[in-house]
TrEMBL record:
InterPro entries: UstE-like (IPR010721)
Species the sequence originates in: Senna tora
Keywords associated with the record: Membrane, Transmembrane, Transmembrane helix
Protein name (database record): 3-oxo-5-alpha-steroid 4-dehydrogenase 1
Superkingdom of this protein's organism: Eukaryota
GO CC terms: membrane
Membrane-spanning ranges: 6-22, 77-103, 110-131, 174-205
Length: 249
């Protein structure tokens, strides 16, 4: 069973408290407490979404990406899993959490850019929460329809998902870029590298998800149209699909 998802919700919080309680830590008390509160809210939201999705069971279901990799590598799967997934993500999480380190090693007064960082972080948490809730409700509704022998809805195309094909990924990225603004404001803009690498990884995950969606016969046509008319990440207005003329023309 893959257990990397709940691991993500714990490590940043542990690193945060390690940095905050270190004997050599120096920081602005209010900035530290604000970042601490935001990080706990982010972690609780992500943990809640994971356990709700897994029907409140710990590691009961394996992620389809792990299943695909195990089929691809066969008996050699253990090393691909250990090195490519688990070991790499230890470094990845530390890199993403570098702004938490900066916040607790630089003592400067609060400024306008702290407000910007707070706004971006809160927007990320809120967008990810509603996107995940809408996805959960959609999957639950389809599960009930399938159990009754009724046709399922092929595509989630309302709420935030009307404006973006992956609003949950967009919200998650906002969170990490928001933390980066805290560090940039303290003169350590190089820590944006964590958020940048995370965005690149989510771009790859997005590609995998969309390739999988396009292979499902019951939704391929709807999804192809969805790709042509809907923004990938950033919520935006619908566009007309290429090759389809407006009814009024």
């Amino acid at each position: 069973m893959q257990m990397i998802d709940p691991y993500w919700t714990v490590i940043p919080v542990m690193l945060l408290h390690f940095y905050a309680t270190h004997p050599l830590a120096q920081c602005n008390m209010w900035r530290s407490r604000i970042v601490m509160l935001l990080t706990w809210v982010w972690s609780v939201r992500l943990s809640h979404n994971y356990f709700r999705r897994e029907k409140w069971r710990w590691g009961a279901r394996e992620d389809w990406r792990f299943t695909d990799l195990s089929q691809q590598y066969g008996r050699q799967w253990w090393w691909a899993s250990f090195f490519a997934v688990y070991v790499s993500q230890q470094v990845f999480l530390i890199g993403l959490s570098l702004p938490l380190y900066v916040v607790h090693t630089v003592n400067q007064p609060l400024s306008f850019w702290d407000l910007v960082a707070i706004f971006v972080c809160v927007c990320g948490i809120v967008i990810a929460y509603f996107a995940d809730k809408q996805l959960y409700d959609f999957v639950s509704k389809n599960g009930k329809l399938k159990a009754l022998g009724k046709p399922v809805v092929p595509l989630l195309d309302n709420g935030l998902w009307y404006y973006s094909r992956h609003p949950n990924y967009f919200g998650e990225q906002l969170w990490w870029w928001g933390l980066g603004i805290f560090a940039w404001n303290l003169g350590q803009g190089w820590t944006f590298i964590g958020a940048l690498v995370n965005t690149m990884c989510l771009a790859y995950v997005t590609k995998l998800v969309e390739e999988r969606m396009a292979k499902q016969e019951n939704r391929v046509d709807a999804f192809r149209l969805y790709q042509k008319t809907t923004s990938v990440w950033i919520p935006w207005f619908k566009s007309s699909p290429l090759g389809v003329k407006d009814k009024d023309t």
